[in-house]
Amino acid sequence: MSQFTRRTFLTAATASALTVACSRSPRLQISNQTATRVVALEWVYAENLLALGIQPVGVADIQGYERYVNVQPSLAETVVDVGTRQEPSLEAIAQLKPDLILGVELRHQTIYDTLSAIAPTLIFNPYPSAENLNQLDEMQQTFLKIAERVNRRDVAEKIIQQMQAKFQTAAERIKNLQKPDFLLGQFSDNAPQIRLFADNSMAAQILTAIGLKNAWKGEFDRFGFNTVWVEALPKVETANFIYIPAPNSPYQQQLETNPVWRGLEFVQQKRLYAIAPDTWLFGGPLSAQILVEKIIQTFA
Amino acid sequence: MLKPRPLITGILLLLALFLLHSHLFTATDEIVRYIKLPRTVIGILSGAALGIAGALFQTVTRNPLASPATLGVNAGAYLAVTAASIFAPEIFTWSPLLVAFSGGLLAALLVYAIAGKEITPIRLTLSGMAVSLALAAFTSALQLLYENQTRDLFFWGAGSLLQTNWQGSIYAAPRVLLGAIAVFIIAKPLDVLLLGEDVARSLGSKVQWTRLCSTLLAIFLASVAVSVVGPIGFVGLVAPHIVKLMGCRQHQLLLPSAAIWGAVVLLAADFIAQQISSELPAGGITALLGAPFLVWLVRSSPRLLSKAGENQTLQVQVKSGFPYPVLLVTGLSCLLLVLVVGLSLGNINLNINQLIQVINGNSDALTERIVLYLRLPRLLVALLAGAALAISGLLLQGIVRNPLAGPEIMGITSGAGFGALLVLVLIPNAPVTFIPIAAFIGAVLAFGVVYIAAWENGVAPARLALVGIAVSAFCAAGINLLVVKSKLQVGQALVWLAGSTYARQWDEVWQLLAFPLILLPLGWLFARKLDVMALGEDLPRILGMRLQQARGVILAIAVALAAAAVSTVGTISFVGLIAPHATRLLIGSRHRQLVPIAAILGAILVTLADTVGRVVLAPKEIPSGLVTALIGTPYFLWLLGFNRK
Predict the structure, then answer these.
(1) In a mutagenesis test of the B interface, which of A84, A114, A222, A244 is the best target, namely the one with the most B β-carbons within 10 Å?
(2) What superfamily does domain B5-309 belong to in CATH?
(3) The model's pTM
């Protein structure tokens, strides 16, 4: 006797629809051709292309890129600004007649179909929500995937090896640090907030790769950081405080005269390590190397 | 005979909260003295200031829905802080307090000035709402264009009591005290004002003078509050109501009690917020807690607050002088013109010949893609959404008989936003089609809650409006919290909240089309009943109308239209509120005529906004929802000025 009731049918249909809808693999526009005209809709992908020696034809928010992501080589004058990262101008992108578009999941998933209609599109997710996925690994994998599409795989592998080598040398130089425990914090420019980076963030993973130990265990956040203020610090005061200051922040200035801050162990023992205010923590292999250099400089 | 019950209960609660909130006996000495205690004191000072300001605004505008935010203080402060952070960071570094204070003050003075020489409550309220919306739109635009520079301001923007030293309290205390003293002087004349303008005048009271002083005082106190704790929206609305519902009417008791209860609400909200998570701003919680409380108070009080908010339509002697058919034809031609302009302008500008070639199929692939797949669907979505929102607002204003009514006030817009953000922020792996669906469900659910909560042998307009505001504030608070939580995803959240026609495809056109197509004619048919319903509660019944049924149907139409529009384009918040007013100023108040013209006006507004947003800063895009506020407000304010009686 058939157990195939209407209910079973509906459940099965919904389930299969959801499975199809939830599948994240990009619509395949399989092409074995090397992409030469690439549009990067997030800064890290522009950085990656430049690392591979390729100038993109279009980048979103070039002004912002030059201000926040300062790595060499820089974008050529001929690169076209295609609008904000969140809402890039589809017309501007179409006009450039690209053969590859690189986007990020948290901004461009909704326009994936529209972008695919213009050119083959790859969407990456640098902030995976599952707790066991590694942002540093994702960064390297994405770098290699992009390199494949532009036929510079060998260059990419060399750069990654260079990055790993840099980690090694850095680990050597700070091997003799008394306390390897650290906190990585970033002060905000215009709010009483400090971002403390957790284990799943790429920045913290880079620091772990050179031999330091992250003392901050906050609640899990997919972006890799918790926003706190001075009250959260006493419980981790034994660690070294590596931080990116915000020199113009009135709140950081207020903090420096606050007795609770002054009473913290790492303040009193002067285990405060400031790195340059323009350090970029969300980039690719080049940014990672710069971060490591800066850390070594402050410990020296 | 003054009954001090609200005052006494308030003071007792405040003392209890003081002990709890400052952790006086439960935290280490230094943390209490330099972190917790300043926070508590600031909470008391700003809560008191907000409570007094709210009570004053409600009396002066004679609208129970008024609050410190109504006169643009919060919006002005937020804009000033955002703009300073981006363009003049040195000034921000030097004194963030002064920046916020001047922003709030200037905005409110602007509102006051715009309301005209003859300040009637309704003018002040409308002017305030319009200016607030415009300033908020500016702020959103800046946040979207300068995402990295402003990303941390959301925490302040949601209202935060965080203190690192006593500076904030030292700044606020003398000012709030000053305000409190001034308030005692003004209390008696305000009681007289409540009797009505003519009575007050005949009693010898200087009405304009009292109004001016109270408004300025309220603006001052609200600005002080916003400069130390950021825009906190619900305290000034709910504290006076709590006190009034406890039976307090005379201002000599009302104002101090409102101050105490303002402090109570704010401290309670912050205390609870801190228990949940230290990353939670207080302002988000004030509405989450205050809203259900307000709904409960409204339901348990048979004699609601004064009905002063009702029947406050603009005295329309207007008539711009054009007969209806002329307006209709002009409107339609304008709409067509705007469509053609929208198709031609953009990243590349096309001329008419090229457009005609595309229609004939003779054009190259790029131009065809741009016109038929990138521009046309957006414009059509804008058109349909604009018409739907305008009519929704019109119908709601007719039902509630309050000029501040609109999809925003009935909880529809914020409910949709809340639903969408829940999916966006908490379930990031969900397929993108879930977002509009969640928005639609959110809108309908929120309105359902409003309707049910306001139902008591039928739905009285004043109660519907107040409950609507409570639920709206609840959802808006939820939205704020989700925005703070969204962190790096904030751009996506903001765009959705701003309301945008970006990247809308033909799919969305077909999805949206059914709603206005069916509901607009229905709305037009039923709108005639609104003319009768404007006469009050009893007259329509006497005339044989089944009031509750008519109300129900019209509400359903309004909600469906708004929910459909908002789930497709996000929360475009200006059209449903202001477009109906602009139409009334053009054509009078017969709904048979209002409906088509309002629909056309709404359509023109959003379609124009889409084009302007695409063109002005190309290739950067300004979301249509922001542009509607930026274009629409000056136009509306001009109409307001043009129509002085």
Answers:
(1) A84
(2) ABC transporter involved in vitamin B12 uptake, BtuC (1.10.3470.10)
(3) 0.84
